[in-house]
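User: tokens in, sequence out, please.
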């Protein structure tokens, strides 16, 4: 006589079919967003191709035209990087050809020594190109860019100086060796350069910077300051301030996203638990912040005075989602909860509230980012780095 299947077995089958159903919905979501991103970016490329030039889109001007940047702009690597990810996600060789073209167009960034952002610029463009093609001309650029970045290392402070203080608005602030939390995002380039060149100096600089930043840049609640200014001779901290946030003691949202993402990378590269703990602490701080909106798209500054009437910053949300997907792969007990949180951010970003209608928004993917309110730059605009981290998250969101 046949035995009745055990209830346990039925429950397992039911659970598996539910999981399978959820997985199918998730895959459809990712595929639809990749298709949307690919079609928007194909249109952006058609527009720039029609000029006969390689124009690198960043944001929208106030008159609705697209703002394009030169190679030395800190945002010059994001559009080439998006092209690499779209090639990876679609296999469309149009994206490969264009990714190569746009990446090549910013090669001079490898010699840039007057700001710290070569990690963003060269990592997103040449870094992804190297990862996907193994082209050794790309790896040579990565190592050269790391050499340039290393010139900004200040041994007394043990950190990489972010901005020069000899001109512009940075001069007005009276800083000597300002380090911004964003700088953590440049460290991945140094780790990669050690792998490629065998020169451990890059690794040591990255670890020194990560350690000093961990010590000085964070508050007991897990949030971070935007700027820490050091004395380049004694290495002592001179002040803790903001440049792009509401106030020195406020919570500038993108800074928190850079910290979560940056320390996730540092943990992946070194295995040092302190970095993982910081990424988790800063994320938990944001997650539990009483001002975090229900759709999980943070205000540009979580301490801004007119919340809930303050602008949101989509770039923060996209960067956080991408960071969380990576964090989930690093064997942490919170992996399922963090993945679900990232999925919720992505669902919001892909909703009509934040994702542009096809063939609008200058063919950027996402609306409603904030560059810098104190500087009046890109306020409630699309930004190429919001799009880059959104596409990266689409890739990382694949189970
Ligand atoms: N790294 C500059 C910014 O986040 O606006």
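Assistant: Sequence out:
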């Amino acid at each position: 006589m046949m035995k009745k299947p055990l209830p346990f077995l039925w429950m397992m089958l039911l659970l598996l079919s539910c999981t399978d159903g959820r997985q199918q919905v998730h895959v459809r979501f990712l595929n639809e967003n990749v298709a949307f991103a690919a079609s928007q970016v194909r249109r952006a490329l058609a527009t720039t191709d029609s000029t006969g030039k390689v124009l690198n889109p960043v944001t929208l001007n106030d008159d609705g035209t697209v703002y394009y940047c030169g190679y030395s702009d800190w945002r010059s690597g994001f559009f080439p990087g998006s092209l690499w990810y779209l090639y990876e996600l679609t296999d469309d060789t149009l994206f490969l050809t264009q990714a190569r073209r746009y990446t090549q167009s910013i090669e001079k960034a490898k010699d840039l020594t007057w700001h710290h952002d070569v990690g963003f610029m060269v990592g997103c463009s040449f870094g992804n190109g190297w990862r996907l093609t193994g082209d050794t001309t790309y790896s040579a650029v990565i190592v050269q860019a790391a050499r340039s970045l290393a010139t900004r290392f200040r041994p007394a402070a043990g950190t990489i100086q972010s901005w020069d203080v000899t001109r512009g608005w940075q001069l007005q602030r009276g800083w000597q060796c300002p380090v911004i939390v964003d700088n953590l995002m440049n460290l991945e380039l140094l780790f990669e350069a050690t792998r490629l060149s065998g020169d451990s100096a890059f690794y040591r600089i990255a670890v020194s910077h990560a350690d000093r930043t961990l010590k000085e840049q964070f508050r007991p609640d897990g949030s971070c300051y935007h700027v820490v200014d050091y004395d380049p001779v004694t290495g002592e901290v001179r002040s803790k301030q903001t440049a792009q946030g509401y106030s020195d003691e406020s919570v500038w949202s993108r800074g928190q996203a850079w910290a979560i993402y940056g320390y996730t990378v540092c943990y992946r590269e070194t295995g040092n638990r302190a970095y993982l703990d910081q990424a988790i602490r800063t994320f938990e701080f944001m997650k539990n912040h009483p001002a975090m909106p229900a759709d999980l798209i943070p205000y540009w500054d979580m301490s801004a005075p007119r919340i809930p009437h303050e602008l949101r910053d989509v770039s923060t949300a996209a960067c956080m989602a991408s960071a969380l997907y990576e964090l989930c792969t690093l064997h942490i007990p919170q992996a399922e909860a963090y993945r679900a949180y990232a999925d919720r951010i992505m669902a919001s970003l892909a909703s009509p509230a934040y994702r542009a209608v096809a063939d609008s928004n200058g063919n950027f993917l996402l609306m409603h980012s904030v560059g810098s309110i104190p500087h009046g730059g890109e306020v409630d605009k699309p930004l190429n780095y919001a799009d880059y981290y959104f596409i990266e998250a689409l890739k990382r969101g694949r189970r």
